[in-house]
Amino acid sequence: MDYKKAAAMIMRLFVLMVVSLMQARCACAAILSGYFPMHQGLYWNFSCPEETDTMSWAINGDFNLRGAGSVFMLYQGNGRVLCLKQDWEGVRVYAEITPDTLYLPDKPYLFYPRDISSEPNASIQDNVTLKIYTSPQKNEKYEQTGTETRHISFIFKSSEEIQVGAQQYPETAVIERTTHRGQDTPVRETLWLARAVGPVKITVKSGGKEKVYTIVSYAGLEKKPPAYPLSRYFPLKPGMRWTYQDQSGQQRVTEAKIPIKSKLADNMTLIPFEDYLHDVCFVMMKDAGLVMPQKYWNVNGFCQADPEQERPITLLPVELKAGTFTYSRSYTISRRWPNMSEMAISDLELVYSSVPLGIEDVTTPAGTFKGCIKIALANMARAYAVQFDVIRVGYIWLASDTGIVKEDLINMFNYTVPEMAHSIFDVRFWKLAKLETVTPTPVLSYQDAQESPPAAAAPVPAQKKKTTPWEGMTWENNSKEMYDKAVDMTPFFVRTLAKKRIMDGITAKAGEKKIVSEEIVLLSVKESAADKHTQQVLVELKKMRMQ
User: Fold this and answer.
1) Best CA proximity match to 322, nearest among 417, 216, 421, 418
2) Taking the C-alpha atoms of 281, 285, 287 and 288 in order, what is their torsion angle to the nearest 10 degrees?
3) CA 138/CA 49 separation, integer angstroms
4) Who contacts 108 (Cβ-Cβ below 8 Å, separation ≥6)?
5) Element (H, E) at 10
6) If DSSP codes are grouped into helix, strand and coil, which group holds residue 366?
7) In 3-state terms, what secondary structure has residue 20?
8) Quick one: which of 172, 175, 174 has its CA closest to 197?
9) Beta bridge partners of 83
10) How far is it, in rounded angstroms, from Cα 325 to Cα 352?
11) Taking the model in full, what pTM does it have?
12) Which is it for strands 302-305 and 289-297: parallel, antiparallel or unpaired?
C-alpha cells in the first residue's frame, strides 16, 4: 500500500469517526456552538414595553484578570460588567462588576453551555460561591465584606421558529436559565438564541413579575449601515461648555479651551478639553478620526504623550457606522508638566476601542435630542511599573452639533498582585443639563508656566526624636523622611492613590497615640503594593533607618 492510499484510508476513518461521534452526541444533545457568538464588537439592542430605554449588551474590551489570564468584557448597561472566557464546555464568568460591588467566584461558573441535553427535564447544574468586595466607607478602599452562594441550572426547552418585528428566525434554541441566590426569590431567564446572531428574545421572571425583551438590532443586521461624520457629532469649538447632571444630582463641567501649539511637534494645534477634575485631553481631528496626542492628569500633575505625535491614539473613528469595531493602541511616554521633559519611569500602554450601536432619541435635563448615536466604549491605561490597569467601559450618546449628551460608564482599578483588591473608583450615569458657549479661556497656563526648582531638603540631626505637627502625628527618627521618600519614588500616575494607601496603613498602625516609628512606615509601604517597584522603594527606605 503506497503512501497516498494509506493517507486516504486514514482520512476516511477519521471522517467516519467524527460523523459517528456527532451522531451519538446529536442523538441526545443540542449543540449550541454558533448560537451565541462572542467576539469583540458584537452587540445586541433590546426593547421592553415596561422600559423606556433600550437595553444593550456589548462585547468590547479585554484585560488580564489576576488568576484568570485574558478575559473579555460583556457590558450589560447600568454599570454591570461580566468578565468572560470561552472554553470547550461553554462561556464562563470570572468576575462580575456592578456600580458598587465586585463579585469574584471561587471558580468560574457557566454563563451558557456549548452543548446541552435535549432529553425532557435534563439539566446542567452549577454551584458557586462568590466573594463580595465593597467599600463600606466609600473611600475607594475595597475589601471583602461577605460571600454569596448561587445555584444555577440550564434546561433545553425546545427548538422553534419565531418572528420578532419584521425578522423571521427559522431555528432558535430555547434555553432556560434559573439562578438561586441564597434565600432570594429565584430568577428564571429564558433565551431564544438564533444561529450566528445570539439572543433575539429574553424573558425574565422573578417574584411573580415578567419582563419580555425583544431584539431591535444587532451587529451585522444592516449590510450597508449609514455613515455619520464624527466632526458633526463631536464639535471642536473653543468656548463650548457642557454641564452634566450626575446620578446624585451634582453638576459636572467639561469645557473646550483656547487651542494651543504643541511643544512636542511642529505645526500641530491641539484643542484642550478640561473636565471638572481639571484633567485635560488635548485632541484634534485627523484622517483617522478624533485623536489624542497628549493628556494631562491633574491629580498627579503629569502629562502623557504619544512618542510619535503625528500618529497618536484614536479615540473615535472619523465615520460612525453601526457595527464597525475600531481598535487603537499606543505606548505613551509620561512627561513633566508644563515643560514636557521625559520622566524616568514613564511608559503607559493605552488601548481604546469602540463600536456604534445605532440611533436613539435621548431625553436629558437640557432637552430631548433626536437621532443620537449610541457608542460602546472601552479604554485602558496599563502601568507596567506598578502592575495595574485603569479600565473604563460603557456607553456614550452623541448628538449632532452638540457632542456627548449622556454617559453610562464605569471606571475600575485592576491589580495583578493578590495583596491589592480590585476596585471601582468612578461610576457615571450622566445626562446633559446645559450647553453654552462662553469666552474661551487658556488651559492650565500650558504655554507660559515655568517649573520652580525643588526646594533643598533640610538636614536631619542624627538620633533626634522630633515631633511634627502634621496630621497630628509624632514622627520618630527618620520616619517622616522615609514616608516622603516613598511617596516621591512612586510614579506620578499612581502617586495620589499610593500616598493614600500608605497613610491609611500608618494611621491604623500608629493607634490612638499617633506615634509613627520607622518600622510602621516600612510595613505600611510594604503592604501598599507588593510589586518590584515597591521592593526597590523598601531597599532605599531601609538605608535611611536610624534604629
Assistant:
1) 216
2) 30
3) 35
4) 68, 85, 92, 93, 94
5) helix 3-26
6) coil
7) helix
8) 172
9) 73, 95
10) 11
11) 0.82
12) antiparallel
Alpha-carbon torsion angle 15, 19, 24, 25, nearest 10 = 100
Question: Which grid cell sits at 42?
Answer: 458584537
Query: By C-alpha distance, which of 277, 270, 254, 354 is closest to 305?
Result: 270
The set of residues, in sequence order, having a beta carbon less than 8 Å from that of 506 and lying 6+ positions away, is: 473, 483, 516, 520, 521, 524
Residue matched to cell numbers 451587529: 219
- Assess contact for 81 and 74: CB atoms under 8 A: yes
Reading phi first (left if > 0) and then psi (alpha if -120 to 50, else beta), residue 17 is in: alpha
- Placement of cell 473604563 in the chain: 392
Residue type, 490: T
Q: Which of 72, 44, 78, 47 is nearest to 323 (CA)?
A: 44
The pLDDT mean for the chain works out to: 87
368 DSSP β-pair partners: 363
Question: Which three cell numbers, joined as nine digits, stand for 451?
Answer: 517649573
> By C-alpha distance, which of 290, 318, 358 is closest to 229?
318
Task: Encode pLDDT of 163-218 as tens digits.
Answer: 998 899 998 999 999 999 987 889 999 999 999 999 999 999 998 899 999 999 99
Give, as one character, the DSSP assignment of residue 544. Answer: T
Q: Any idea which residue has 433590546 for its cell?
A: 46
Q: What is the DSSP letter of 473?
A: B
The dihedral over CA atoms of 227, 326, 100, 68, expressed in degrees to the nearest 10, equals 150
Q: What torsion do the CA atoms of 284, 289, 290, 293 make, to the nearest 10 degrees?
A: -60
414-427 CB burial, b ≥16 within 10 A, e <16: bbbeeebbbbbeeb
* CB proximity list for 344: less than 8 A, separation 6 or greater: none
- What nine digits make up the cell of 501? 494607601
**109 CB neighbour count, 10 Å cutoff:** 18
d(CA 320, CA 229): 6
Which residues of the chain fall short of a pLDDT of 50?
18-27, 447-469
User: Which residue has cell 478620526?
Assistant: 289
Question: What CA–CA distance (Å, rounded) separates 177 from 188?
Answer: 6
Residue among 43, 401, 406, 361 nearest 229 (CA): 401
Question: For the chain, what percentages of helix, strand and coil (3-state, to nearest 5) are there?
Answer: 15, 50, 35
In angstroms, the CA 432 to CA 365 distance is 6
Q: What is the Cα–Cα distance from 155 to 313, expressed in whole angstroms?
A: 46
- Based on its alpha-carbon atoms, the radius of gyration of the chain, rounded to whole angstroms, reads 27
Contact 534, 506 (CB under 8 A): no
Beta strands 187-194 and 515-516 are unpaired
Peptide bond just before 338 cis, omega within 30 deg: yes
C-alpha to C-alpha distance for 359 and 56, rounded to whole angstroms: 12
Kindly state the cell numbers that stand for 343: 520622566
Q: pLDDT by residue (tens digit) across 367-411?
A: 999 999 999 999 999 887 778 899 999 999 999 999 999 999 999
